[in-house]
Amino acid sequence: MTRRIYLAELAATFTLVFFGCGAIIVNDLYGGLNAIGVCAVFGLVVMVMIYSFGNVSGAHMNPAVTLAFVFARRLPLNHAPAYIVCQLLGALLASMLLAYLYPAHETLGSTLPAVTHDRVFVIEFVQTFILMLVVLSLSTGHMEKGIMAGAAIGGLIALEALVGGPATGASMNPARSLGPGLVSGQLDGIWIYIAAPVSGALLACPACRWIQGEDWTDGDTE
Q: Please, which residues bridge with residue 139 across strands?
């Protein structure tokens, strides 16, 4: 069972980066998608991965989400390292494949600051806080609940990409930023794309507990 959980995280994160960053690359090289199309791709791939692998691993696809579930006592701490390794590996493998397929593209869809670093931090922090608040509200343990959870989370990803994308790349996900950043060498402000999502996701845990009240669920899940 444990092996299937980690394989699901690797596959889900690989697919997220391959299609999401691939959409950026294809739009830059050939056009046709435009900004709205790229944002829609990110939202759709997250939705599809939640419906495909959410029952196995929770389809976190994001080290910040995994760490927040640990902090919220919804995921055992000893599961977190393997989750995060598989997420990073999936992102790296997808980025390496994109580099092979599109060698003319220099950034491979990396998240690069278009505003000052302090503003990038605030945007990434706030957007990840909102994302994790929604994820926690739509999950039991560390897995999403209800038939519409995937659509709601995917829709929020697309919305945040539309708003934050032009300024920061709308990462909200250290793995999504590290994969293409490491492969392409585009590491400007990479610490922000690690620190801001993690801190935003962690702060969402007490906020969700306070807002949801009796509906909050926690406790370690295997």
A: 144
